[in-house]
Amino acid sequence: MKMSIIIVGSPNQNSKTGLNCLHKLYTMKILFFYRWLPGKSGLNVQDDFGKNVAVARSKLCRLGMYLGNVGYIVKPASDALVQYGKTDNMNMTGRERLWAALTCQPVDELPILLQGMDPRSSTRKYRDSSWDPVFERNAEAGDILTWWWEKTAPTDQGDVQEERRCLERTDTHDRWETIFTTPDGRLKQVYRDQFLTGATEEYAVKSMADLPAAKQILSQPVKVDEQATRKDFEKVTRCPNTLPMLLTNDPVERVIELLGPTQYCFMMIDAEKELLELVDIAAGPIIRKMEDVLRIGIQPVIWLDGSEMAVPPYAGPARFAKLVFPYHKRIVDIAHKYGCPVLTHCHGPIGGVLDQFLATGTDATHPFEAPPSGDITPQELKELAGGSLCAVGNIQLDDMLRAPRRKIAEQADKLLKVFDDWPKGGFILSVSATPTCREAPAQAVENYRFLLEYKNT
């Protein structure tokens, strides 16, 4: 059973009592999350809870609280005794189910995620109608984690001017040139956008002489448009089966976007000090932007992307500890401060750095790949994580696109034998990646629809 509690009273008088009560329930894992909003007014309700639940919930929702189903509204007494209400978790929405699984709380049925296949995604327009049967069924029955970005506003801070123009536009791709003009020089980058995927053709940093300008680019602040961000978040969450994920770049990934993988690898060997400085500079705006978004009062999942660029074959545990761990830890700590779980996305061999992932406090990992793609089996992940990490995965995308349905069923069965305690939370059956093909192979449609129905087999 899941339990929810909302403290209602006079925040100025009862904030300490409320915080203590909320924190105690959170540490006991009775709450999925908690938030106290000191200084807010208009939250008092009468003792007749039955008549006031809807009113109180409406007021709290307008303050950005992410509530789910509320059993009771309670008012803390002076002796700090708190009542709480139970809500029946046998009829969860997709959003509630995903949130519970990611935070290792009980779920009503097996959560199943079709990675990157949100039927309301703006990228759906780049796929032809052969994908429609998958999108339509996912809209009806899917548990949908969808990527979501903050809305930004112009800022007069910083000294970098960025000009972007389209060099070429075709049916299959666009080519974009970006010119960065900084006090330390002018850099050019060219990107080929193939709509569902893409590649950088020319990286901004060509040599060590470009590093001063790169530092200027990486240090540029981002101003969050709070009103537009909140409005867009509310729009996404109108679907009760959709849980937004705030896409957050790992700082090392942001650096590689300017350097390219070749220059990045050379710097790890020949200029580690300079590389670490770039990553540290990049971390500042990324972390500040994320906290500015969460400070609004909304609660997305944090999708932390890019640490796979610091695992083998690029780097080992020692370099991971320098390039990823300290920033990952800060991001997780801030996300938890605002009651948001963190889902770390990292392909490849994570076995050698799993202890560092766990030490950051991250809530979930996606995907977890056995050889040859990775180096950790589902059983090994479960044993090493010890129930403190939600495993999101893992059926490889290539199998979903091409393998016979029988093979998909066998993989799903094997995963559920390992994660046989999935009703307690901590496991989401998921595809490893997002398909990037415009036209759906016939086998892919069959496999995706089968996976959606797997919980009923």
Describe what this molecule looks like in 3D:
- It contains 16 helices and 18 strands.
- It has helices at 11-27, 49-62, 94-102, 132-141, 211-218, 226-236, 251-259, 261-270, 272-295, 317-323, 325-337, 354-360, 378-385, 397-402, 405-418, 442-453, and strands spanning 2-4, 6-7, 73-74, 85-87, 112-113, 144-148, 152-153, 161-169, 174-182, 185-193, 198-202, 223-224, 242-249, 301-305, 342-345, 364-366, 390-395, 427-431.
- The chain is α/β, with parallel strands linked by helices and 457 residues long.
- Strands 5-18-17-16-15-14-13-6 form an eight-stranded parallel sheet. It has a four-stranded antiparallel sheet with strand order 8-9-10-11. A two-stranded antiparallel ribbon has the order 1-4.
- It has three domains: 2-87, no CATH class; 112-157 and 221-456, TIM Barrel (Alpha-Beta Barrel), CATH 3.20.20; 158-205.
- The two termini are 24 Å apart.
As for the number of domains, it is 3
In whole angstroms, how far apart are the ends? 24 Å
CATH topology of the largest domain: TIM Barrel
How many E strands? 18
How much helicity do the residues have? 25-40%
Shape descriptor reads globular
The low-pLDDT segments are: 1-89
Q: What structural category arises from helix and sheet content?
A: alpha/beta
